[in-house]
Amino acid sequence: MLLSRVAERLYWAARYLERAEGTARIVREHSNVIVDLPLSVTPAWDHLLGITGNREGFDKRYDIGDETSIVSFLVADSLNPGSVRMSIAQARENLRTCRDILPVQAWNAVNDLYLTAGRDAVDGVQRRYRSRFLEKVIAEHQRLLGILTSTMSRDEAYTMLRLGRHIERGDMVTRALDVRAGLLLGERPEQAELYDDLQWSSVLRSLSALQMYNRRSATGDGATEVIRFILGETSFPRSVAYCLAGVQSAARELPLSESVLAACRAAIAELSSSDPTALLDADELHRKADRLQIAIGTINNRIVGAYFGHTAWPN
Amino acid sequence: MAQLRTLPRQWDELVDAHGRPRPAAAALVERLQSLDIAELQERQSLAEVDILALGITFTVYHDGQGTDRAWPMDIIPRVIAASEWAMIERGLKQRLSALNRFIDDVYHERRVVADGVFPAELLEGSVNLRTECVGMSPKFGVWAHICGSDLVRDANGVVHVLEDNLRVPSGVSYLLQNRAISKRAFADLFDRQSILPVDDYPDRLRRLLLSLASDELHGLRHPQIVVLTPGVFNSAYFEHAFLAQQMGVPLVEGADLFVDPGNRVWMRTIDGPKPVDVIYRRVDDMFLDPEVFRPDSQLGVPGLMRAWHAGNVAIANAPGAGVADDKVVYAWVPDFIRYYLGEEPLLPNVPTYRCHFADELAYVCEHAHELVLKPANESGGYGLTIGSAATAEQLEAAVAAIRADPRNWVAQPILQISTAPTLCAGELVPRHVDLRPFVLSGHDTYVTTGGLTRVALVEGSLVVNSSQGGGSKDTWIVEEP
C-alpha cells in the first residue's frame, strides 16, 4: 500500500536527485574537456543550457553567457530550480515527509547531501574547487543509492524511486546526445564519419560513458557506434534504452500501470525505429531526440495521471 | 571523580539529604562516582552524535519559522524503584478510568452535574466541550485512549499529578529514543541490574488501535489503521512519523483521506481508494473536519465527523475528549475518582485554587506572588506566570487577566519539585525534573514503564518544556535487589 501523495514525493525526489547528479556530471566533464582545448579555441559553455533544458531561465537572469555565469546558474543558483543545489534542496523537501518510509540512514544521506550542497555550491563554481565539489555531490548521491539498494524493501515506494530516477536519466541523456552530437555533426557534417577521437570521446565522457564504451563487446566504430551505444546499448545503465527498460520493469511492478506500460512500449519502439547511420545527419538526430523527449514526457504524464491524481478524487 | 550535589530542603531523585544513594539508584550512583567528569562528558558527546545520526529532532517555532533541532537529552538517567512505580501505575489507571467515565458522562446524562459534583456553568464555559459529540458512545466507553499525565515530586518525596494531557499528548517517541541512547551510554549497568524495558509501547498502541475498529469488520478484513498528522510543520512531526513507522501503518495527512457519500473513510493510494477503519489523529479537534469545526482547516478531512457518527471509523483520541483536559476540570479529578469509582485517589493532585469561586479568587489575587497562575487551556508551559519570578507589572497583568475571566484560571502553590543530577557545563548539578508517563486505555489499561523525564536545564528554573529550553532524561524503573 502506498499513498498517492507519498508516491508523488518519492518520484519527484528521485527525479531531482538524478537531475542533480546528471548536471554535476555534465558540468564536471565539460570543465575537464575545456582545459585540454588549445588556447586559440574559445570554449563554448552555452550549449550546457541546452542539455539541462533551462536556457530561458538563464536568459532572463543573466546578461552574458560566460563560464562563470553559466556554471553558477547550473550549480549554485538558488533561483534556478534546476541547479544542482536547488534540485537537492527540493529532493530533500519531498523526502522530509517520507521519513517513515525511508531507511533512517537514507534520510541521513539525503541530509548530508543537502548540507554539502548548501555549504559548498557557491565556492564550487570556481574552477579550482569545482571538480571536488561536483565529485562530492556525485559520490554522496551514489552513497544514497547504495543505502537504498542494500537496505530498502523492494516495495512500491522503492519502485517509485526507480521510476523517477530512470525517467530523469533517460530524459537527460537524450537531450545531452542531441546537443553534444548535434554540435559535432552540425559543424563538420562531411567529416562526421571520420572518427575524431577527442571530440567524440568528449561526448561519451560528458555522459560518463567513455570507459564502458571502450570496453564494449560490439565491434562497430566511429560516430554511428557512439550514437548507437548511447541510445541503444541495453547493458549500459546510462543509455536511453537501459533507462526505458528500467522504467518499464518498474511500471510492471505497480498496480494500474497499463497506460504507463503502453507509453513505455511506444518509447522503446521509437528508440529502435531508425537506422543509426541515418542519425549522422544533425537534423535527423535532432528530430529523433525530439520524438524521444515527447515519448518520455508521455510516460511521465501517464505516471502522474495513474498515480498522483489524488486531488481529482473522489469523482 | 564525579560528585553529586543536592539542594537544601529539596528532594533529589538519586541521593538522599545526606548524599547517600537511594536504594534503587545505588548501582548508578556508584558508577557515576567511579567515572571522572571528562569521561561522562565524553559519553554525553557520543550520545549527542547518536541523536544527530538517528535524526531525533523536534521543531521549534520562532517568528513563524520552524527549525529542526536535535533532541536535547542528558545522559544521566533518573531512577525510580519498581515498588514505587507499581503504586504510581495503579494511581494512573485509576485516574484514567475516572476521567473516561467523566467524559462519557458529560456527553450523556451528565449525572456528575445533576448530583452536584461538578458545576454546570463550568461545563458550559469549557472551550473543549464539543456539543457535536453529545450522545456518542465510543467502544469500551473510552474517549481518551492515549493520555500523557505530568507528574512532579515535592520536597517531601510525594508524587503529585500536575496535569493530564488528553488531546494530542506527545513525547512518547522521545521516551523510547532516550532508552536507545542510554543503553549505549551506560551499557554496563543494564547487565548488572534489572532495568525494566520500555520498548513494547508501539506494539501496545497498535493493539489498542486495532481493538477500536468496528466489530462489524470482524472476519471481513484486517482493520486499516492510519496516523493522521497535521504535517511536516508540526513540532511533533518526528514523533508522528516515528510511531507510524514503528507500528507499520501509513502516516497520512488530511488530503490523503476522503469521506464518501456513504460516510466511509478512504485513503488515496496508487492502487485507488482503500478503506480506513481507525485513525490515530495528532490533529486538534478544531481542525479535524472543516464541515463541523473550523471551516478554514486544511489539515482535516471533510466529513470525518459524519463517518465517526455513523460508526464507520474510530478516532483516537475521540473528538471531544479534551473536555477533561482543562486545568479547571483537573481540580475536580479527585472528586471524580470518589464519585465514579467510590475509591480514594491513589495519586494526589497539586492543591489547586479555582478562580471560579469568589473566595478562592480573592485568595489568588492576594497571594499571586507566591503562586503559579495557569490559564485553563494552554499547554507547553505557555501563558503561565510563576509569581515569585514575575515582575510587578507581569503579576498585575496576570491578575487583571484572571479577574476578567476567572473561570479559565487556576492557581497552585509553587512546588519545590524534585531534582536529579544533570551534566551541565562540565559539572554534575541538581536540576528540576518532572515525569510524563503515557496511559493507553481501551478494553484494559496500560501504563508505560516509567515515562519521559523532562529536565529544566537552567539553574533554578522549573520550566521543563522542550519548546522552552528544557531537556530530557531516560527514566529507569529499577527492581531493587
If you had to describe this structure to a student in words, what would you say it looks like?
The complex is a heterodimer of chains A (315) and B (481). With 315 residues, chain A is mainly α. Chain A has two domains: 1-152, no CATH class; 155-310, no CATH class. Chain A has 14 helices and no strands. Chain A is globular, with a radius of gyration of 19 Å. In chain A, 46% of the residues are buried. The model of chain A is unreliable at 191-195 and 311-315 (pLDDT under 50). Chain B has 481 residues and is of the alpha+beta class. Chain B has a five-stranded mixed beta sheet. A four-stranded antiparallel beta sheet of chain B has the order 5-4-19-20. Chain B has a four-stranded parallel beta sheet with strand order 7-6-11-12. The radius of gyration of chain B is 23 Å and the shape is globular.
Query: Could you name the ranges of chain A where pLDDT drops below 50 across 5 or more consecutive residues?
Result: 191-195, 311-315
The largest inter-chain interface, given as chain pair and residues per side, is: A-B, 27 and 26 residues
Instruction: Please count the helical segments of chain B.
Output: 15
Shape of chain B: globular
What percentage of amino acids of chain B are in beta strands?
15-25%
Q: First CA to last CA of chain B: what distance?
A: 26 Å
Total count of domains of chain A: 2
Radius of gyration of chain A: 19 Å
Tell how many strands the DSSP assignment of chain A holds. Answer: 0
The outline of chain A comes out as globular
How would you spell out the order of helices and strands of chain A?
A: HHHHHHHHHHHHHH
* Sheet with most strands of chain A: none
Radius of gyration of chain B: 23 Å
Low-confidence stretches of chain B: none
Helical content of chain A, roughly? over 70%
Q: If strands are numbered along the chain, what order do they take across the biggest sheet of chain B?
A: 3-22-21-18-17
Protein structure class of chain B: alpha+beta
